[in-house]
Amino acid sequence: MAPDRLTSLDASFLYLETPAMHMHVAGVSLFAPREDGPLSYEDVVRVVEARLHLAPRLRQRVLPVPGNLARPLWVDDDRFDLDFHLRRAAIPAPGGRLQLERAVGRVLSRPLDRSKPLWELYVYEGLAEDRTAVLLKLHHALADGIGGMLIGSALFDLQPDAPLGAPAQPWVAEPTPSREEMVRDAIREMTSHPIETLADAARTPRRALDSIGRTLSGMGSIVGMGAAPRGPFDAKIEPARRFATAEVAFERLRAIKRTLGGTVNDVVLTAVAIGLHALLAARGDTTKGRTLRVMVPVSVRSRAEAGDVGNRIAPAFVEIPVGRMTPRSRLSKVRAATEELKSGSMAVSADAIIGLGAYAPPALHAAAARLVSRGRWFNLVVSNVPAPQVPLYLGGARLVASYPAMPLGETCGLSVACTSLGGTMAFGLTADWDVLKDIDVLARGIERGVDDLEAAAASRLGSRAG
Fold first, then answer.
1. Domain assignments of the chain as residue spans, ordered by start
2. Predicted model pTM
3. Least C-beta-crowded within 10 Å: which of 23, 28, 75, 463?
4. 202-384+409-414+428-465, superfamily in CATH?
């Protein structure tokens, strides 16, 4: 079987990586103890060994094409050693939130080894309340947030006593293509793409014109928005990372949405905006009339791509207010901004622009990706990764929450990600070590933001009843 080639977006995440800008994503999953004790490293090893065949990409490494004639390939690692990827760790007493956050931050500060499959899994034992944390770290070239969920789902169960299962037959690595084969395939691809594109356009000219029109319209929106406003996280980032967590019951967000309107994502963005106001106020910064531009990764997966683990995201941009105002007013402004985003073609256009990398020589593709990354297009990233609202288990231990971690931009020192696995909306805040020394102020501010929105919803319900 011929090896898969990285998509243009997957390859972009490889090209973007620098010694200071690590392009990995991660998830910190927290597990309650079982009746017979806490989840152990040995328990996790048994699950991974039994389920690894369900995520074949975890046994594959990236292989560059000679002369960079085409994008790299995913090839089986014939020296694959699971022991390299599984790491046993412990955190100091009392094993609370701060100790876990610091340990995760240190892992996020280190790049992945490109000579091996691009992932690591850490098991943190000795947490307070006999809990165990599992950190799965993946290169962004391997998966986006949803793709990471798909990989994680191979390890999770819907019942605490679910059987482990086992592969039907032992894994054997597919042969690595020779240099001659890679060069021949790359040349064939370079010559065939333009012909296929022209043929598609000739068969469906109206659809081709519509696609071009949408792309140009969205490009105009992106270019027309100009540079982002001055922000507190604008800085050339360094390798060291801070990580912080926050959490609220997912049902609280749904209740706020039902009462005040909008979507769960609108509520999330509003809570983050309230947290940002609290952070700026604590620093003594001016907030009056101030907005910050958020880059919101938007999934552009089709139904046919629902089971793919690669990247199918495009960037969209939303201005959120961080000045002093009531929670309802802030939510209303956020809703107006996201409604404008939905009615536009920015995300579709960004996806089409990214797709153009499929036809560009890798050197040009890499140069373009780096050039775009250096622009000050946004102040921070906020990503909400959808997840099933059902109890999940690993090795019989119940998942309490899963805190995501996202990469930073070259001149953007903060990313906020959240996901609602296990019924808890868990926020993971990743920041440059020096840019956000007061990261805990923002984390607690987001939680208080949900409290404020909940109080506003209760007040509205009370006024209706009266």
1. 202-384+409-414+428-465
2. 0.86
3. 463
4. Nonribosomal peptide synthetase, condensation domain (3.30.559.30)
